[in-house]
Design a protein that fits this description.
The chain is of the alpha+beta class. It is 16% helix and 19% strand. It contains 5 helices and 11 strands, in the order αβββααββααββββββ. The strands form 4 sheets. A 4-stranded mixed beta sheet has the order 9-8-7-10. Strands 2-3-11 form a 3-stranded antiparallel beta sheet, covered by helices on one side. The longest helix has 13 residues. The protein binds calcium ion (2 copies). One calcium ion (CA) binds next to loops.
């Protein structure tokens, strides 16, 4: 049995949001002007106790180039590249523990809305080879890194002297001035067209866009809606072994999941990345006085 089938029960709500063929050049919007702005901004918000807090938040999702610098410096190997250890995951068949990740594979024609029609666990797929062993990230330096498991995101954040945001922190930073709940907007990279068959690319991209190509929210944060889902440090409600993702992705469609909004979230198996899962980091800013 393939690993993606084993993970289906956990991943279904997330993975449902993917698929479709690329219908060729955009008919509207074309490729958005893209002048990615990196770094972090200070965000001020009130937490659940009413206390004012300041948080340094990455402007964009972490990119392939940024993750590559981490790997070059540390020699880190991601979970998708390592696979799952037998001693911890003995309940999974051997083929489900092999190195690989969940890759979007668009269906050719209409059919049942079954996630296995547009998701495949591909051995050899990882952040360096996002479509499988014969693919690469050449030309994708500024696209968000994908096929990142939770532990990989935590490791990167630690290396950078930062951490992952909680779901509450993420939403507090993302919500002000974020693109509205409007699937016809060109303000975010979501799914345009009829999911999962047709992707019209009306927002410029059928898959990931370079991080930072769409208008920022009021805090100066890019892609808080769409592009890739983002890991948080918050466990899933009723699913303590899963972790919350926020913000939807380039495969969130009007006719299916519609999670292209900052309050959208989904619990995800922390050991398994996918073509549409990335992250950004935060750091606490000490408030003096
Ligand atoms: Ca798109
Ligand atoms: Ca995002």
């Amino acid at each position: 049995m393939k690993r993606f089938l084993i993970m289906c029960a956990i991943l279904a709500p997330v993975l449902f949001a993917c698929g479709g063929k690329d219908d060729g050049p955009s008919t509207k919007g074309a490729t958005p002007p893209c002048t990615p702005t990196r770094g972090a901004v200070a965000v001020v918000f009130r937490d659940s106790t009413g206390e004012t807090r300041r948080l340094s938040v990455d402007r964009t999702e972490v990119t392939n180039a940024e993750f590559g610098r981490f790997v070059d410096e540390t020699g880190y190997v991601t979970r998708a590249e390592r696979g799952l250890p037998e001693d911890t995951f003995s309940y999974l068949p051997e083929e489900a523990r092999r190195p690989g990740s969940a890759v979007f594979t668009p269906p050719e024609k209409p059919g049942p809305m079954v996630l296995s029609r547009w998701w495949t666990f591909v051995e050899g797929a990882n952040w360096r080879r996002p479509e499988g062993p014969h693919s690469s990230i050449s030309g994708l330096d500024h696209h968000p890194v994908v096929h990142i498991a939770y532990e990989d995101a935590v490791a990167y954040a630690g290396w950078a002297g930062r951490r992952l945001p909680s779901a509450v922190e993420w939403e507090a930073a993302a919500a002000p001035g974020a693109p509205p709940f409007h699937p016809d907007s060109d303000d975010a990279n979501i799914w345009t067209g009829f999911f999962p068959i047709s992707n019209t690319r009306e927002d410029g991209y059928a898959q990931t866009a370079p991080a930072g190509c769409y208008p920022p929210n009021e805090n100066g944060l890019y892609d808080v809606v769409g592009n890739v889902w983002e890991w948080t440090s918050t466990p899933g409600v009723g699913e303590p072994t899963a972790m919350i993702l926020k913000g939807g992705s380039y495969v969130c469609a009007r006719n299916f999941c519609a999670r292209y909004r900052t309050d959208a979230e989904q619990a995800q198996d922390p050991t398994l990345g996918a073509s549409h899962i990335g992250f950004r980091t935060v750091a606490d800013i000490e408030t003096k006085g």
